[in-house]
Amino acid sequence: MSSWISRATASHKAQLVTTAIVSGVIVAGAVIGFQQAKRIYKVESVKSSIPDINQEHEATRINEYGAANDIFAPSKEDERSAALAHRARSGDYDDELILEQLARNRVFLTDAGLAQLRSAFIIVVGLGGVGSHCVAALARSGVSHIRLVDFDQVSLSSLNRHAVATLADVGTPKVFAMKKRLEQIVPWVQFDCRNELFSEAAAERLLQGLDGKKPDYVVDAIDNIDSKVALLHYCKTNGIPVVSSMGAGCKSDPTRVFVGDISASTEDPLSRSTRRRLRALGVKDGIPVVFSTEKTAPGKAQLLPLPEDEYVKGSVGDLGVLPDFRVRILPVLGTMPAIFGLCVANHVILEITGYPHEYLPSKARDKMYDGILGNLQGLEERLTRATGEEAVGLKIPITQDDVGYLIEEVYRGRSVLTGLSTRLALTRWRKPKAGFVDKRYLPGQKSTLLQLRDLVCMTKEEAAKHEKEVLKGDKTPEDLYDEEVIRLVEERMAEEARFERLR
Question: Which residues form the THIF-type NAD/FAD binding fold domain (predicted)?
Answer without folding.
Answer: 104-360
